[in-house]
Amino acid sequence: GTSDPYVKFKLGGKEVFRSKTIHKNLNPVWEEKTCILIDNTREPLYIKVFDYDFGLQDDFIGSAFLDLTSLELNRQTEVTLSLKDSHYPDHDLGSIVLTVLLAPREEQREAFQTQSLRLSDLHRKSQLWRGIVSITLIEGRELKAMDANGLSDPYVKFRMGHQKYKSKIMPKTLNPQWREQFDFHLYEERGGIIDITVWDKDAGKKDDFIGR
């Protein structure tokens, strides 16, 4: 009775952003931010929502178009879009909520300067990424016990360049079952190194390092 939704954004038939997958949730909260370069505001942003299926083809949930000409320059706007499926035009497929800011290029520097990546790099890289590395963190086996009870509270950190993800914490287990998915944008043709570290969560003190 649930889905594992993620969202793809397309401009001119080309994928420009893909969200994380939120597992077992019909009311997902992403809170993800991206900066997309637009050459022509008359071209709508195409938004497609899918249900992630491990090992199978992902199910299409619904899609919507965002008319960029309807946005006011330099004004942050909250937009609610109803999802549709052309095969089932009468079905209510839910909705997706975005906050959108349309800004001229020279002003984007100020809007996004809080991000760790310099915007010039972001512009360059948004044009250069060649694919997505999709990682499914399935389980841990026989991890080291770091706590006095002979167990651990493990979680995993993934880092590739400036991109970082952190898994859920699994309390009191040495054989955690995560079943979480993370997506990295791949910028170099030769790939890159993904740094994977495992930690034991400790309340009130520094988390213990289990391994890399």
Automatic annotation (TrEMBL):
It comes from the Eukaryota. One of its GO terms (cellular component) is synaptic vesicle membrane. CDD domains: C2A_MCTP_PRT, C2B_MCTP_PRT. Pfam families: C2 (PF00168). One of its GO terms (biological process) is regulation of neurotransmitter secretion. GO terms for molecular function: calcium ion binding. Residues 1-81, 113-212 form the C2 domain. Keywords: Calcium, Metal-binding. PANTHER family: C2 DOMAIN-CONTAINING PROTEIN, DYSFERLIN-RELATED. Belongs to the MCTP family. This is MCTP1 protein. The gene is Mctp1.
